[in-house]
Design a protein that fits this description.
Helix 10 (141-156) runs antiparallel to helix 11, helix 10 packs parallel to helix 12 (199-214) and helix 12 runs antiparallel to helix 13 (226-245). The protein has 15 helices and no strands. It is mainly α and 291 residues long.
Length: 291
């Protein structure tokens, strides 16, 4: 039967226009039906079968977990009623209760601490004077440590061999990322002092940071020194804002003037602050003489 099926097609004895009813076609269909019945348990469902070409056109996005979970099981009514926001609120309340505020305050962010102080002073106005007395001056030591650490990163990125220059364009390309980080940290620190209206500490920080900026490398290509110049300009602008908005005594202004005169040779950006101090102190002398 197999040899007959593989040979040339035989002409049926009786002519019939229905090709599917020929003896040869009936035998072939019978063999196919037997093979389908034998391999039916090994075949995958029709929905999961696809050709390689069709699988290539499928989306790379995996199916959502919600669709898979919903097809496997349905959640109980108790789980549906509880929202994730309510669960998170319950967890937060449980974590705060039973903990001393002195310990819990260590885990919150700076913005959260500011909100706590605002609510406390709003609900208890009588504590405003006492809180103002207890608020310390900003600690500039950690700001100085951060700037010195970033400055060390700049010098660590420079070439170490004697045959390579440490101030050319290739060396600048190696440390440009660290220079940007240094500038960003300097601007953020001065901005925090300005927003807090700590003008005395702002002047001290600018004078301290001025020496750190001065210690950064100077490059052979003048455009590469733009970050260094912008740092000097930002510090001088911060000093000018502190002099205008801060309430300094005459002795404090004289002390600031002496410190700025020692730094004026590093950059011309500081001359504006020095001239402002000279004019202000001269005007105050005249008003004192007239009185």
């Amino acid at each position: 039967m197999v040899i007959q099926a593989r040979g040339r097609r035989q002409i049926p004895l009786t002519f019939s226009p229905d090709i599917t009813r020929s003896p040869l076609r009936q035998r072939i269909q019978g063999l196919q039906y037997e093979m389908q019945q034998h391999n039916s348990r090994l075949m995958l469902p029709i929905q999961t079968r696809s050709s390689p070409r069709k699988r290539l056109t499928l989306s790379d996005t995996p199916p959502s977990a919600h669709g898979i979970a919903s097809s496997l099981y349905s959640p109980s009514p108790d789980r549906i009623r509880i929202s994730p926001l309510a669960k998170r609120q319950k967890i937060e309340n449980c974590s705060v209760n039973g903990v001393d505020p002195e310990i819990a305050i260590k885990a919150i962010s700076k913005k959260q601490l500011e909100n706590v102080m605002e609510k406390l002073l709003l609900n208890h106005p009588e504590l405003r004077q006492e809180v103002s007395r207890l608020v310390p001056t900003p600690d500039l030591s950690h700001m100085e440590e951060e700037l010195n650490f970033l400055k060390k990163n700049i010098y660590k990125s420079l070439p170490n061999t004697r045959l390579e220059s440490k101030t050319d364009s290739l060396a600048y390309n190696r440390v440009s990322v660290h220079l940007q980080t240094f500038k960003k940290r300097l601007v953020e620190s001065s901005k925090s002092l300005t927003d807090g209206e700590q003008f005395t500490s702002l002047v001290d920080y600018c004078i301290m940071a001025w020496g750190v900026v001065k210690a950064t490398p100077e490059w052979d290509n003048p455009p590469h020194n733009s970050i260094r110049k912008s740092c000097f300009k930002h510090l001088s602008t911060s000093v000018m804002k502190a002099l205008k908005d801060g309430k300094f005594s005459r002795d404090q202004l004289v002390s600031i003037q002496k410190k700025l005169n020692n730094l004026k040779g590093d950059s011309d950006e500081l001359m504006v602050c020095i001239k402002f101090l000279d004019f202000y102190l001269a005007d105050s002398r005249k008003s004192t003489a007239l009185s």
